[in-house]
Amino acid sequence: MKIGFIGLGIMGGSMAANLQRAGHEVQAHDLRRVEGFPRWAGSAAEAARGAEVVFTSLPGPAEVRTVGAALRGAMQKGAAWFDLSTNSPQCVRELHAEFAKAGLHVLDAPVSGGPTGAKSGKLAIWVGGERPVYDKHLAVLKAIGDEPYYVGPIGAGTVAKLAHNCASFTLQAAMAEVFTLGVKAGVDPLDLFKAVRQGASGRKRTFDRMAEHFLPHKFDPPAFSLRLAHKDMTLALELADRENVPMRQARIAMESMSEAMKRGWEGRDFRAFLTLQEERAGVSVAVPEEKLRAVL
To answer: What is the mean pLDDT of the chain?
Structure first.
């Protein structure tokens, strides 16, 4: 296909190169000249002219809007724009509506896999927008990443990406807490790492564990009771107090566990306390168990 690609940074440069290696004609553009792209375009508009599909890989919403202003008047009618940036749902939804008036398709398609994945093609691509447009361009998406996935209407891919990254950053913060606790309490950091990665949480993929209890709402009978989990968390925080280790993330979790205990849930699976967040958010995330099994 004839492709316009704008944004050749650490991620975009590798993705554009992979498209080129796959035999696509890539009209590339960036604010700085990047070698390896013989069909160089002097502007975003020039990169988009005559292209069947346009990809952007940009820092954020402000840059996407700026480039979008140039693309709207340059793209041929019926062409599709896949924004690979980590953007905001509001931004892509507004652009989707604006471009639709001109007979153009906008899809959000943020990626996950980092620079190594961008180079090797081992990327997840979460897409939001019209399903027929996604299906039409599935082959070209697979030249960028090995795991393209249609999430839902416009903005859905971006929501999935932000949820994923928020989880990643929060989990890493919690891991930093527990490692400082373990090391300050006298365990060598490497020995601690070797130990905890062999535990129940260490042996399984993080998101797969959500399908065991929380997502299907299976809390009775318990696999591990809230009573025991609360006892363990109490002991961990007592240790933290003795060692003078701040545990902000853990104490937030403990507050919810204690609230669940007050509700009389001590005999349920400890993950029942996670439903308190559903109450606070005013939404249910329950999924039928048979559908989860099909995904896993």
So the answer is: 97
